[in-house]
Each structure stands twice: as structure tokens, then as C-alpha cells.
Amino acid sequence: MTSLASPQLCGIELRLCADGGANRLYDEIPTFFPEEDPLLVRKRYKPDVIKGDLDSIRPEVREFYDNLGSTVLDESYDQDTTDLHKCIAFIRDCTPDLEKSNLILLIVGALGGRFDHELGNINVLYTFSNIRIVLLSNHSLVYLLPKTHRHEILINHSVEGPHCGLAPVAAPSQSTTTSGLQWDLNETPMSFGSAISTSNILRDEKVTVRSDADLLWTSSIQIQNVDPVL
């Protein structure tokens, strides 16, 4: 099956599950609406597309969503890319060129599981560095700060922080400068095996970052009392 996104599957709103993510959706979406019939909740929040090598989705979950009209795209022939990579490529191909620069993807459940999966997800940030992709868990978020830009990060202190960090994963940084942190960097070199910025503190409502290397930005988040937006 072609890896290009079919226009018929692309819309203004697209619900896309990466393989076993369909299991998580099936199992957990009813818990957000405990007073409602689980079957009705699952039907209301069915994915438009399920995509990946399909080695994780349970047969009964695949059959359930297939019967509801979800499109299941089997790319088991491609073992060189992750399911997340496949899904982001699908969204990229769905998005008109004029809108790609404004594309922001929030990847839920991208952290906190198997470490090799986390490494694969971080690698996707670099592979699609021209797209703003945020990896999200219950406790933190991570995204890439490309060296081609001076970055201004607006902080919502009711949700983000207090902790944050910066790390040059792909290549060392000879000079990184920040503002808005408890311990700002001033043309500071960073590399693994030497110093990186961890357990820093968000001080201001705006953080600026300038570096000669691509950096991973991470901050802690507080979402325990946030109502789900689905």
C-alpha cells in the first residue's frame, strides 16, 4: 500500500493512531467519561486512521474500529521506520505546503515507556526538524530547538515547570546562551560526557535560547487536574 496520504483520508481534523495506540484509545477513552456507555464513547472518539506495522494492535481492537469505518493502513513491509515516523509522514503529506510551517504535532504517550521507543521518538524530532513536534508524558514534555533559530519559549507556569533542561543530543554545543532561567547559560559549552543543563528552573514567563547546536528542550508539566480535550 502506498505510503502517501490519500486526500480522502485527510481533513481539517484528523484522529490518527500509531498501531498499538489504538489499544490505548480503546481501553482508556471510556475512563474519561465514566457515566457514559463505553461503547458509545468509543464510537464517538474513533480514529480516522490507524497506521503502522500493525504488530501491536489487538485483533479485536482492529476489528472493532474497522467495523466503525476507520481506515487501517498496513505498512509492515517497512521495518526501517517506527510507527510514529510513519504517522508523522502521513500528516506531513496530508498538510498543504502553505500550512506546513504552522504545523504543530502533540504526541501523547511518547515518553515514560521502553527506552528504545523513547530514543526512536527523539530521533523523529530530528528527522522532521522542520515540524514542531512535542513529545508528551504525564510528567514532562520534550521538543527540538533547531540551531537555525533564536527561540522564544512562552511559559504557562500553571501547567509547566518548575523544572526544565537543555541537552545537545546529536552534536556538542560550543556556545549556548539563555535568558529566563534560574541558572542562565552564557555562551556555555555543553556535551554528553561533560556538562548539560538539567534540573534548571523556569524563572520568567518567557525563556530565550540561542545555540550553535540543535538542543532538546524539556520541562516538567502538571496535568493531573486538567480536563481532557479530545
From TrEMBL:
SUPFAM superfamilies: Thiamin pyrophosphokinase, catalytic domain, Thiamin pyrophosphokinase, substrate-binding domain
Enzyme Commission (EC) number: 2.7.6.2
Transferase recorded as keyword: yes
Every Thiamin pyrophosphokinase thiamin-binding domain range: 149-215
GO biological process terms held by the UniProt record: thiamine diphosphate biosynthetic process; thiamine metabolic process
GO MF annotation terms: ATP binding; kinase activity; thiamine binding; thiamine diphosphokinase activity
InterPro entries: Thi_PPkinase, Thiamin_pyrophosphokinase_euk, Thiamin_PyroPKinase_B1-bd, TPK_B1-bd_sf, TPK_catalytic, TPK_catalytic_sf
Pfam families: TPK_B1_binding (PF04265), TPK_catalytic (PF04263)
SMART domains: TPK_B1_binding
Pathway assigned in UniProt: Cofactor biosynthesis; thiamine diphosphate biosynthesis; thiamine diphosphate from thiamine: step 1/1
Reaction it catalyzes: thiamine + ATP = thiamine diphosphate + AMP + H(+)
Keyword Phosphoprotein appears in the UniProt entry: no
Enzyme class: transferase
Keyword line: ATP-binding, Kinase, Nucleotide-binding, Transferase
NCBIfam families registered for this protein in UniProt: thi_PPkinase (TIGR01378)
Function description: Catalyzes the phosphorylation of thiamine to thiamine pyrophosphate (TPP). TPP is an active cofactor for enzymes involved in glycolysis and energy production. Plant leaves require high levels of TPP for photosynthesis and carbohydrate metabolism.
Family per record: Belongs to the thiamine pyrophosphokinase family.
Protein name: Thiamine pyrophosphokinase
Organism from which the protein derives: Picea sitchensis (Sitka spruce)
Taxonomic lineage: Eukaryota, Viridiplantae, Streptophyta, Embryophyta, Tracheophyta
